[in-house]
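Your task:
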Amino acid sequence: MAKGFNRPAGIGGGQGNMLQQIKRLQEQMEAAQAQLAEETVSATAGGGAVKVTMTGDQRCRGVEIDPELLKDADVEMLQDLVLSAVNNALDASRKMAEEKLGPLAGGMPGLGF
C-alpha cells in the first residue's frame, strides 16, 4: 500500500489553510496600507507658526507657514521650524502606521510581516 493513504482526514490540509490565512492577511495589509495613504496627521512647530500635514504612508500633503512669522523670521529660524514640523509629522505618521499595521504584522509570526 502506498504511503499516506491511511492518514486520518484533516491531516496534511494545514498547508491549504495556511495559504488561505496568508492570502487573507495580505488582503488586510493592502487594505490597511490603502487606508493609511488617505489618512493624515498634522504637526506644528513654533507655537503653530509652521504646520505640516503628512499621510499615513509618509507623504507630505502640505506645509503652512503663518505670514506673521515671515515678517520677523530669519531664514535659519524658518528652516529649523519647518524641519522640526516635518520630523514631528513623520513621527506621528509612523506611529499611526504602526497602530494600523501592527496587529496585522503579529497575525502570522515567523513570516517577516
Remarks:
- The helical segments are 14-38, 67-72, 75-105.
